[in-house]
């Protein structure tokens, strides 16, 4: 099998990008990198330290004190923020409500992209996010752009929150949060969410997780033996 094959998965919030990416990486024996978790971890640090998003000097200074690392168990990606496991905390609503603003910052994106590109230089990887196929790995061999009906996305996200013990956030709040994030992600100046011209559209509104994995494997398979 070739080395340095990059599968980029972009798309809207709560479309199941991470679910597909993890399953695909496990099936192929690739490394899974959760780029979204990186931006969420930065957001968590900013929230904890009350970093003013209107003060670029404060943002630049904060970034100098953030060290992110991943470790993996059973292809579940766990992120460490300055040595602390924060994988669960970064998925809560306070982070969800602020991550679009943080990730839209030019310096934040610059720092994260550099780290992501370093991770993909010499390994077979699956990486999901908002701009993987358009900014981080423009030359990725396989690109997917995931989408789904907004109501279905909200229901999936709300169900996920409930499973993690969140009994406060309502379905309506989740729907509004996703609508806000869609607008912010697609209209920001720095690397907005857009489909790369060569990305394969994957609408999973009516697909099971097994069906979307089969679809992805079918598209990736031709590249596995190429030199």
Automatic annotation (TrEMBL):
Name by which UniProt lists this protein: Cytidylate kinase
A cellular-component GO term for this protein: cytosol
Pfam families the UniProt entry points to: Cytidylate_kin
GO molecular function, one term: CMP kinase activity
Gene3D superfamilies named among the record's database cross-references: P-loop containing nucleotide triphosphate hydrolases
Top-level lineage group: Bacteria
Localization, UniProt: Cytoplasm
Family: Belongs to the cytidylate kinase family. Type 1 subfamily.
Keyword terms of this UniProt record: ATP-binding, Cytoplasm, Kinase, Nucleotide-binding, Transferase
Residues that hold ATP according to the record: 11-19
InterPro entries: Cytidylate_kin, Cytidylate_kinase_dom, P-loop_NTPase
Protein encoded by which gene: cmk
BP terms from Gene Ontology: nucleobase-containing small molecule interconversion; pyrimidine nucleotide metabolic process
Organism in which the protein naturally occurs: Pedobacter polaris
Enzyme nomenclature, EC number: 2.7.4.25
Reaction(s) catalysed (UniProt annotation): dCMP + ATP = dCDP + ADP; CMP + ATP = CDP + ADP
Record-annotated Cytidylate kinase domain positions: 7-220
Lineage summary: Bacteria, Pseudomonadati, Bacteroidota, Sphingobacteriia, Sphingobacteriales
